[in-house]
Automatic annotation (TrEMBL):
Ranges of residues in domain N-acetyltransferase: 15-185
Organismal lineage: Bacteria, Bacillati, Actinomycetota, Actinomycetes, Kitasatosporales
Protein name according to UniProt: GNAT family N-acetyltransferase
GO molecular function ontology, one term from the record: acyltransferase activity
Segments crossing the lipid bilayer: none
Enzyme Commission number, as recorded: 2.3.1.-
Gene3D superfamilies, alphabetized: 3.40.630.30
Organism encoding this protein: Streptomyces luomodiensis
Keywords, alphabetical: Acyltransferase, Transferase
Length: 188
């Protein structure tokens, strides 16, 4: 936990949510993801390539949550869904079977959202996802989350995301996922 002068820990309002040059700060972002979500060093290396490739996609955008000292403590990134992307090809048959394949079009995908554990449960994740989707031209948003009763699932439900397909199995991922979708703007 970072301490401000006087031993004070940063208040939520001290943490600024704004545009993030994720390509330049990918290692800091993956360090947040590694501790928030749990990634091995090997997985970090793989994710690094994926993130840098994603950022070349049309419409890809990232936001960061930064402390007054400039430390990155959370980030979100996403892009308009592209049916040729790996994620979309994996979820497509599940959405199709559930009658929701149309959600793959005109949707803004939340690819990653992570807040450092020391800064969780202070509204930062909510600010990150509502701010990035407020800037989307698409009328809806989709994402996948591990299919369990997690803070992430509770946050997404409270913002209007509903289950579109579950369980969804990603090759090499041990846990089943749920694909969720919400109309934009997200519910406040
Ligand atoms: C999911 C995550 C990004 C949320 O970030 P956050 O800054 O902690 O979330 P917020 O403080 O904005 O909380 C918003 C909502 O999330 C839910 N939530 C947050 N922490 C929670 C907890 N410990 N238990 C249950 N619900 C929780 C609540 O619905 C909360 O709404 P409320 O404040 O009105 O009660 C964060 O928990 C995280 O990084 N988790 C690990 C990585 C991860 O799972 N990422 C998502 C991958 S799909």
């Amino acid at each position: 936990m970072l301490h401000l002068p006087g031993g004070r820990t940063p208040e939520p309002e001290d943490v600024v949510v704004g545009p993030l040059d994720l390509a330049a700060r990918v290692d800091e972002a993956l360090a947040v993801q590694a501790v928030a979500f749990g990634l091995t060093d090997e997985e970090v290396g793989v994710r690094r390539h994926i993130v840098l490739r994603h950022l070349k996609s049309p419409g890809a955008r990232a936001l960061g949550a930064t402390t007054p000292s400039g430390r990155l403590v959370g980030f979100v990134y996403g892009m308009p869904n592209d049916r040729t992307h790996w994620w979309s090809t994996v979820v497509q048959p599940y959405l199709r079977a559930a009658g929701h394949e149309d959600w793959l079009d005109d949707s803004f995908v939340i690819t990653e959202l992570h807040v450092h554990p020391d800064y969780q449960n202070r509204g930062i994740g909510r600010r990150l996802i509502t701010t990035i989707t407020d800037g989307a031209a698409e009328p809806r948003s989709i994402l996948s989350a591990i299919d369990t009763d997690s803070p992430a699932r509770a946050l997404y439900r409270s913002l209007g995301y509903g289950d579109l397909a579950r369980p969804v199995l990603f090759p090499s991922a041990p846990s089943p996922y749920a694909v969720m979708g919400a109309p934009l703007p997200l519910r406040r």
